Amino acid sequence: MACGLEFTTVAGVIPFLIIGIGIDDMFILLSGMAGAPPLYKSTVEERMAFMLKKGGVAITITSVTDMIAFIIGASAVFVSIKIFCIYTAVAVFFCYLNQLFILCPAIAINECRTEQKRHFCCCTQRVKSKEIYKRKSKSRCFIQCFAGHQPKSREDVESPLEKYPKRLISLILRYKPGKLIVAVVFLAYIVSSIYGALNLKQGLDVHNLVSKDSYYYTYGVWDTTYFTSDPMVTVCITNTHQYHTPQVQNQIRSLILTVKKDDNIDDHFAINWLAVYKESAFYNST
């Protein structure tokens, strides 16, 4: 419970949702910083302004739309959904504040470190270029650990996971075998997606909508575990018929058999009031 608001099991997924939103916002900000003018042409303040101009607007729009969506969801009639939406809307708001008041200052501190050419780990030591250390006959290990320079372009700050996949994909797509492999993989992806969509199991465990200390939660778990049953399909006949005639009875029997042929319906159990009535002592065929 937080601020008088109950906590439900469904709300347990909120941290993972917020982590995803936060990481996405972080990548947007860092991408904006990577595209900023280099330090030898601009100051840290100008680079931060460029980053917030490019990425700050994007994360603001996404955060506001997310909060509005969850605030609207808080008007749901289900109490558990209302609680989930309230918690998530507040979490998205604080995630946005963390981006502005924690991540952005951390990026600014790192930019000051880069401007002063200080080592990324032990910031007290200033780094020099690889050429200077090579002239001093430093070892490769020393050069790898302590050499560096201010980034001059986006490519200088890209990690191997950003550089090599682009090169590898462009190399693969130059040749027909590579194009064929990509086409086959994409076709397999489409087929598996269609199969998954057609065989997707839908449903909701209602006991997850209440707290674990609720008596309904225990009842729901036991009912799902030991007394599993799907909802019954009801067929209603609204027109007036002469149910005592064999023709109408045969039509109803044919309708029930047609419904049972559906693959999604269990044909081992059916409740037919007409069949029960025919077997009773009150039935009169006239």
What would your notes on this structure say?
- By secondary structure, this protein is an all-alpha fold.
- The chain has four domains: 1-115, no CATH class; 124-155, no CATH class; 199-229, no CATH class; 230-286, no CATH class.
- The chain has helices spanning 14-34, 44-73, 79-115, 130-135, 140-146, 154-157, 160-172, 176-198, 215-226, 246-260, 273-279.
- Helix 2 (44-73) packs antiparallel against helix 3.
Number of structural domains = 4
- Regions with little confidence, pLDDT below 50 for 5+ residues: none
**Secondary-structure content class:** mainly alpha
Q: In whole angstroms, how far apart are the ends?
A: 67 Å
Major sheet summary line: none
Radius of gyration over all CA atoms, rounded: 33 Å
State the total count of DSSP E strands: 0
Number of helices: 11
Overall pLDDT score: 84
Basic shape:
elongated
Reading the helices and strands in chain order gives: HHHHHHHHHHH
Strand fraction: under 5%
Report helical residue fraction: 55-70%
Write a short abstract of this structure.
The chain is an all-alpha fold and 286 residues long. The chain is built from eleven helices and no strands.
Keyphrases for this structure?
single chain, 286 residues, mainly alpha, 4 domains, 11 helices, 61% helix, elongated
